[in-house]
Amino acid sequence: MKYRISSGMRAMVRHLQWVLPTALAVTTTAVSLQASATPIFARQTGQNCQACHVGGQFPELTPYGRMFKLTGYTLGQRTKLPLAVMAVFTGTEQKNVGAAPPNSAFSFNTASLFAGGKITDNIGFLAQYTYNSPSTGTGPFIGPFSGQAGSDNTDFRYANRIVNDSTDLIYGVTFNNNPSVEDVWNSSPAWGYGYVPGSTNGAGPGFLAPILDGGLAQQAVGAGAYVYWNKTIYAEISGYRTGNGVFSFLTQPQNPPGASQTYIAGTNPYLRLALTHDWGDSNAMVGYTYFDVNQYENGSSGLTDEYRDNMVDFQYQYILDPNTVTVEVSDINETVNYGSAGSVSDTNSLFRAKASYTYEAKYGGSLAFFSGTNSLNNYGPSMFGNGTSGWTPEIFWIPVQNVRIGYQYTFYNSVGALDLTGTPNYYDTAQTLPITKPGDYNTSFLYVWAAF
Amino acid sequence: MKKLMTVVVLGGVALVAGCSDIQSSRDLANPNLSGKQLAEQVCSFCHGAQGNSIDAQFPRLAGQQPQYLTEQLKAFRSHGRSDPKATQYMWGIARSLTDNQIAELASYYYGQIPTHGAPTNTTLVAEGDKIFHNGIPATNVPPCFACHGADGHGHDNFPRIASQHANYIIKQLHVIKYTDERPQAAIMKGVAHGLDDEQIRAVATYLSGQS
């Protein structure tokens, strides 16, 4: 234990040489730009980021932020230039990478261009286009970055709100390219922890995540209808299909380059139900999501595998100046029925929990836990465990409202036997690597995240 | 599944075609929106239905004095009230409101029935009650009722403070005591100066439970 921490500290000190000057440069730029350029929605409403993001901790939404999204991003006044940019600089170091160099890397990680906001009184959108830097990546499981721009999360909405002395009904339709990106709670996969681009949290190495956890992000497009009644019950029904043909602009080009489009058969149902309650300075949500997808095993025809996902999630927020506390928990259980005759089904599950605290919307910290398991029925016996689990403590600082600087350290309790494509990984097969225990994957991660 | 998609798409088209009108607009730059509509469509997100917010970050507006409310909205619009939360939340909301919309908002909120809290700390409530009715002679704090009315309901530009969230009152008394971010509250500065943190908490707790 002691060794792990000191290794993390050493890595941190090494990174600080790079990060501090960069952070200062970014901060200075941010301060000088602030008057003229803040992200789209802040300009549209004239408000500070923390009106919508809990303790300034983007992308976690406050109750007001959720209402803003559910009413179709239409509150406020139309801006002249509905664009914003986001950039992320990161430094990553894995404790022991075995034979796979390079390890420590500080890179300009991603840059995104956002377009969005109010179009009419009832229609609005948020679209993201992302460039990933051509860095070589740092560990076998972070994956090579591509050096290419591609379509990212996009959500178009029409919404209406009927409100009077006795009723408050919001209803609308969404058209998007990532199952759950339309969701307004941060326990949902698209907005759950692991949101800092390039961070290792989420699934981690050696583990195959359920398809609901980003498996169809920018692969599928979906349309859905939702209602939110008396700030109590939220219900949504959506259908997703392959994002090809006229919808290619929401999925192409694929990132990383060379990756092929995932094809799903027909229209696949996504259902979401959430119960919410506000009291005092707190609010909570208990939710359920069902997603049933038929994906082609190869290309766009032939046999399909069925992925049936059930997710239960929970969120709690306490917001009272100068403190905020947020807790998010999600548990996804997936059954995979393979198309090939005679194959046994598999199960994949992913549990995540995270709690964070912020003070004066400037300083914050969080602790996250994740645990994923795969049944491995179709992968043969494995000498390694069938799951990945670990902890990520994080501290962060928000010097100005649109810049966040943070440090995470991920401790792995266990690392499973599958790589991210579902084939047994190098850890399993290449016994020449001196990676001998889960702790070898422990990772230091530093980031500077800015949006203007 | 094809059917599901068809239903969803057709439903969507029907919704879009059916109800795209100004009735549900949340456009803060459209002078044609009435005060009531703004209150229901926009302000209610934070200040609650009928101005009875749940969360103490957001002051209750129900029953607030129209003259006071008008002055505050104009002060947000002109940046005359500049405490941090006013800047972060209300400057943007108020930036394009017209005088007419402000007047309508003020009369809408004055017409709503305020709800109030039920503080449980009886010692604090009793101490607050004393401060409200007698002031604190030792530090020259006049009784609050002298300006805010016998029941704390306010009049003219003296705000209603009864039924307000305790945490909001505490925050504002600190703003008034330590900063000049609310210049219109200069008359309150001497009052706030004579109150220590414990007394502020007491009077705020007492007021939050008054109707």
Describe the protein's topology.
The complex is a heterodimer of chains A (452) and B (211).
Chain A: H1 2-33, H2 40-45, H3 49-52, H4 63-70, E1 83-94, E2 105-118, E3 123-132, E4 148-163, E5 168-176, E6 220-229, E7 233-242, E8 268-279, E9 282-296, E10 304-320, E11 323-337, E12 346-359, E13 363-374, E14 387-397, E15 403-414, H5 426-429, E16 443-451
Antiparallel strand pairs in A: 1-2, 1-16, 2-3, 3-4, 4-5, 5-6, 6-7, 7-8, 8-9, 9-10, 10-11, 11-12, 12-13, 13-14, 14-15, 15-16
Chain B: H1 2-18, H2 35-47, H3 66-77, H4 84-94, H5 99-110, H6 122-134, H7 145-148, H8 166-178, H9 186-193, H10 197-208
Helix content of chain B: 40-55%
Enumerate how many helices of chain B there are, as a single number: 10
Total count of strands of chain A: 16
Q: Assess the beta-strand content of chain A as a share of residues.
A: 35-45%
Helix amount of chain A: 10-25%
For the sheet with most strands of chain B, the description reads:
none
> What is the terminal separation of chain B in angstroms?
55 Å
Q: Over all CA atoms, what is the radius of gyration of chain B?
A: 20 Å
At the fold tier of CATH, the topology name of the largest domain in chain B is Cytochrome Bc1 Complex, Chain D, domain 2
SSE pattern of chain B, N- to C-terminal: HHHHHHHHHH
Classification by helices and strands of chain A: mainly beta
Give me the oligomer status: heterodimer
Q: At the first level of CATH, what is the class of chain A?
A: Mainly Beta
Describe this structure in words.
The complex is a heterodimer of chains A (452) and B (211). Chain A contains 5 helices and 16 strands. With 452 residues, chain A is mainly beta. Chain A has a single domain, classed as Porin. Chain A has a 16-stranded antiparallel barrel. By secondary structure, chain B is mostly helical. Chain B starts with a helix and ends with a helix. Chain B has 10 helices and no strands. Chain B is globular. The longest helix of chain B is centred in the first third of the chain and has 17 residues. Classes of the chains: A mainly beta (452), B mainly alpha (211). Chains A and B meet through helix 4, strand 4, strand 5, strand 6 and strand 7 of A and helix 1, helix 2 and helix 4 of B.
